Amino acid sequence: MRPLAERRGLWAGVWLVSLLVALLVVGWLYRDTARHHQALARVSLTFDQAYRVQQKRLLALSVPLPEIPPARPALPVLAFAAACGGELIAWQPEADGGPALTLALPWSRVPPLFSQLAGYAVTLRGFSLSARPDDVLLVLALTPEAE
Fold this sequence. Notes:
This is DNA utilization protein HofO C-terminal domain-containing protein. The chain has helices at 4-61, 77-83, 110-117; strands spanning 87-92, 100-105, 122-131, 136-144. The chain is of the alpha+beta class and 147 residues long. The model has no long low-confidence stretch (mean pLDDT 85).
């Protein structure tokens, strides 16, 4: 059997060699990890550059969409007659050639009526005016807009 001092020296050598091997393994792993991180950074940079180039190409190809006007509401005949300051004489939704609206109203209310009518989903095909003693008789020939 070996003396105790020799055995301690042997174990110290084993520990020292094990420590050196462990340090070498850690150093190798750290170096490999650092290379891996550098490669990932290069790939990430390349991806970001490719993304920006693709985004510029798509922006160059994009065409602005035409502005779509908001949908106009249907013509509420009674409310329209009241808003124009007139009296509803006749409403013929099934008249030949399209709907016809007949109103009696003061002459001063006739010009603003046309701008109010433009806010609704109808097209004016024609109109006629007839003088009456106290007001004007207005007949509107309308065409409803397709929905």
